[in-house]
Write a structure and sequence with these properties.
The complex is a heterodimer of chains A (about 325) and B (about 300).
Chain A lengths: L1 H18 L4 H41 L10 E3 L2 E3 L9 H7 L6 H30 L6 H8 L1 H4 L2 H12 L5 H8 L11 H29 L3 H9 L4 H29 L3 H7 L10 H10 L5 H31 L1
Antiparallel strand pairs in A: 1-2
Helix pairs in contact in A: 2-14, 4-9, 4-11, 7-12, 9-11, 9-12, 11-14, 13-14
Chain B lengths: L1 H5 L28 H29 L19 H9 L2 H32 L5 H13 L2 H14 L6 H25 L3 H9 L4 H12 L1 H16 L3 H6 L7 H8 L7 H36 L1
Helix pairs in contact in B: 2-13, 3-13, 4-7, 4-10, 5-7, 7-10, 7-13, 8-9, 10-13, 12-13
Classes of the chains: A mainly alpha (about 325), B mainly alpha (about 300).
Chain lengths: ~325, ~300
């Protein structure tokens, strides 16, 4: 990223030198003449994003600086209109959350990090393992591949409902299966620890196919010559995997890990639908916690908006950090 | 995986892969393996397949049984019927939800693809001030957790009377669908050689003419994949739909929760509904998935 930016900058200054002589207005005019076509083509999207994303985002930031809740926002019920009466409170909400005074943020954050790390590790690891197996010459490969991506083909909320049916503590087939293997039956959707294991399990089940297919694509793009050369040098299959396959997969695996972290961090369906409203909230990650804050009980819009902004800031910090470090390792 | 890779020994000198079977102890080539590791490989894949397919098969199995099949799965095989399906189609709002979902997901897709196609092309082909920032915006918007926009959008829509309204939900979905489509299509346009554009320009087409007459026809598979995927995303969205729509306008993902309630779930109807929802989605998905992954990861690595 850094090199791309610097070449871009040098290109800009080179262009700037040429355009520096004529007065500013005509420079503006020239760039309009030159670029109006491109700008016209991106205008619809730019406008839509400004209206639907940037404006609500700004509104959300504003909300997070107020004490808006269900009782004081503007509402219209039939002909009766009640104006908004909430007031500006500055950074109080952020202080409340970040200082730990609301006693929810840090426990939720800790669980969210554990959830994201364990889900992504398992998804990428198992997905890569299956991809390596499928990349070999295997009979019925097409069949295996089609069956293994089934969890992704099914809409995620259906997959979650299927698991909820299986994990039912009283009649669920999952407990019967694991007791047949000698493991103790659990109240999967009841006790906090079991809930946490259950949501990770379901999310990994849903997430493996994407990782598998992406890594499979990456495997097929590694030049065969590299393997032949490694074989000539007497590398064992394990050495070939570590020294040829893994480095060759780096561009794909970096992207897959980044996407996986973002998607898992933001995962709403699995936790919200698997546990429903019966939960004590111990298995809630930041996103589902903020959703409940916004829309159950007395809706705390300001608090939920604060959480939303903090989640977004965390994600953006993480991804820019991640991209920077992976780009460094790719160039090294 | 470990079983298959660890087994070969690394002691012997290297040979070309054709003659590997001739001598007894050699480094095994990539495409050769012993009977034992073949069995291990298939056993692993079969186990994975069973785990991947079982929940789906199970819900299909339960849906074919009598009303209390989920409590007594043993009764299913002797009482196979499609009764749950005809029951749920005739006596619930499922057809209505289906229609709602098709309208919302279809509207989102049309909006996303039409708006984003030209932008994807411009970002892919033209160098202009703001293109990098635009790509960055597309990327960051996809990073938005649904919670960031759901509160402000909810409040704004309630002021504009767009809650419980198809258009309101379509606009809410467009917040992610439009940047996603632009991002994906930029990736597909990148795969079409630039020489085609140049040939079009030489023959006197305007940039938009080049885009419309030459590039769009070539990019049709990519456009289709993008369209289908944004359709499927809207098809399965839960958070916005739960909050924005009232009972008449429920989409499938919200409606099914009225069967699968927290307290007394009706698994007979839930399972039949699940299968009805899954079949079209899974068929569409299987058709587009191959091109989908390359699009998702290509956009990522090129930014």
């Amino acid at each position: 990223m850094t090199t791309a930016a610097s070449t871009e900058n040098s290109g800009k200054t080179a262009r700037g030198d040429k355009a520096a002589r004529p007065p500013r207005v005509s420079a503006l005019r020239r760039s309009w003449d030159k670029y109006w076509y491109a700008w016209a083509m991106v205008a619809p999207v730019a406008i839509v994003l400004a209206v639907l994303v940037l404006y609500p985002l700004g509104y959300g930031i504003y909300q997070s600086l107020t004490d808006a809740n269900e009782a004081n926002v503007a509402t219209t019920i039939g002909a009766f209109h009640r104006p908004a009466t909430y007031k500006f409170v500055g950074l109080d909400n952020y202080w409340d959350v970040l200082s730990g005074a609301d006693s929810d943020f840090y426990p939720r954050l800790a669980w969210t990090v554990i959830w994201t790390v364990s889900c992504v590790t398992l998804q990428v690891g198992l997905g890569m393992g299956l991809a390596v197996l499928l990349n070999r010459k295997v009979r019925l490969r097409g069949f295996y591949r089609a069956m293994l991506i089934l969890p992704w083909a099914v809409p995620s909320f259906i997959g979650v409902f299927a698991w909820r049916l299986m994990l039912n503590s009283q009649y669920g087939v999952f407990n019967e299966i694991i007791t047949a293997f000698g493991l103790p039956a659990q109240d999967w959707l009841g006790t906090p620890l079991a809930q946490k294991i259950a949501v990770i399990m379901v999310n990994v089940w849903i997430g493996i196919p994407f990782n598998m297919v992406a890594v499979l694509g990456g495997l097929q793009s590694i030049p065969k010559e590299l393997y032949e050369a490694a074989e000539m040098d007497g590398a064992s299959p394990w050495q070939r995997f570590v020294n040829v396959t893994l480095p060759g997969l780096r561009p794909v695996s970096n992207t897959v890990i980044l996407l996986g972290c973002i998607w898992t961090f933001n995962m709403f369906n699995v936790i919200y639908l698997l546990l429903g409203n019966n939960t004590s909230g111990d298995a809630d990650i930041l996103v589902t916690f903020a959703f409940r804050k916004a829309f159950t009980g007395i809706s705390d819009y300001a608090g939920a908006a604060t959480y939303g902004i903090i989640i977004l800031a965390l994600l953006m910090a993480f991804s820019s950090f991640y991209r920077r470090s992976t780009l460094k390792s790719e160039q090294a | 995986m470990t079983a298959a890779t660890h087994e070969t020994s690394a002691s012997a000198p290297a040979t070309s892969r054709g003659s590997a079977t001739a001598a007894p102890r050699k480094v095994r080539g990539r495409e050769e393996r012993s009977l034992g590791s073949s069995i291990a490989l298939h056993a692993t894949l079969i186990t994975a397949t069973v785990i991947a397919a079982f929940p789906v098969v199970w819900i299909l199995f339960i849906s074919l049984g009598p009303k209390d099949a989920w409590q007594e799965p043993g009764k299913v095989l002797s009482n196979l019927s499609l009764h749950n399906y005809s029951d749920v189609l005739a006596h619930s709002d499922l057809p209505n939800w289906f229609l709602n979902t098709v309208i919302v997901a279809g509207g989102t897709t049309v909006l996303g693809v039409f708006l984003a196609a030209t932008a994807g092309y411009a970002v892919s082909r033209m160098k202009f001030p703001g293109s990098r920032q635009l790509m960055w915006t597309f990327l960051v918007t996809q990073m938005f957790p649904s919670i960031v926009l759901i509160v402000p959008l909810y409040l704004l829509m309630s002021e504009l009377n767009l809650l419980d309204n198809y258009l309101g939900l379509i606009l809410a979905y467009a917040t992610t669908a439009v940047p996603f489509c632009a991002w994906m299509m930029k990736g597909y346009f990148d795969t079409i050689p630039k020489e085609i554009d140049e040939a079009g320009r030489v023959d006197g087409l305007t940039p938009f003419g080049t885009f419309w007459r030459l590039i769009v026809p070539l990019a049709k598979p990519g456009l289709a994949v993008t369209a289908f995927y944004s359709f499927l995303t809207a098809w399965g969205e839960v958070a916005y739909a739960t909050q924005f729509m009232q009972s008449d306008h429920y989409t499938l993902s919200v409606g099914i929760r009225t069967f699968a309630q927290d307290q007394r779930p009706d698994w007979a109807w839930t399972s039949a509904t699940a299968i009805i929802i899954t079949i079209p989605a899974a068929i569409v998905f299987m058709l587009v998935q191959r091109s989908l992954v390359s699009g998702l990861t290509a956009g990522g690595t090129k930014s």
